[in-house]
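In response to reviewer comment 3 from the previous cycle, which asked for concrete evidence that the modeling workflow produces usable outputs, we include below a single protein chain processed end to end. The sequence was submitted unchanged, and the resulting structure tokens are shown without manual editing.
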Amino acid sequence: MNNHTTILGIDHVTNIMGYGIITAKGTKISVTKTGILKLNAKKETLSKLQDIFEFVETLIKEYQPQEMAIEAPFFGKNVQSMLKLGRAQGVAIAAGLHYGIPVHEYAPKKIKMAIVGKGSASKEQVASMLQYLLQNFRLNDIDTYDASDALAIAYCHYLQRTQIQQAPSYSGWEAFLNKNPDRIIK
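The workflow returned the following structure tokens.
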């Protein structure tokens, strides 16, 4: 891992977008910023999408994240709601890609599992665990759980990328067996 990495997490629902920005310096993680973007429910859909793009663009310019993480789309019963959510997520992703930032998607259950250890954890449990895990995050610092959800997405990505970087690599089975003689069954 380089000297420091800033990760932007995005949690989007139809009228509120949560964001959480963390900075990792080695194994020390600090919360840089959390908050929400409230979208006018009565505003035209295309105008909302423009607001999302411009807001994410502003976050990127101000905090200069090296990576972005977003909650992957999930399937619901209301097709119109899913279409609106997909568009909003797509616009946020496009803003990141426009600035050359790698974007990573995580399923809601994977995020909860990474933070709490339980894929069916409540928003309250996720926020509480984040308060425990992140030294400078307090529940009273957020307007809604959308902000803590976004922070959870960013932290989930940090954990995922850390595990990948720390995982040993092998050039093949022979190299694996040479480095792991205790795993050979005789």
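Residues 5-183 form a domain with the Nucleotidyltransferase; domain 5 fold (CATH 3.30.420.10). We consider this sufficient to address the reviewer's concern, and the full set will be provided in the supplementary archive.
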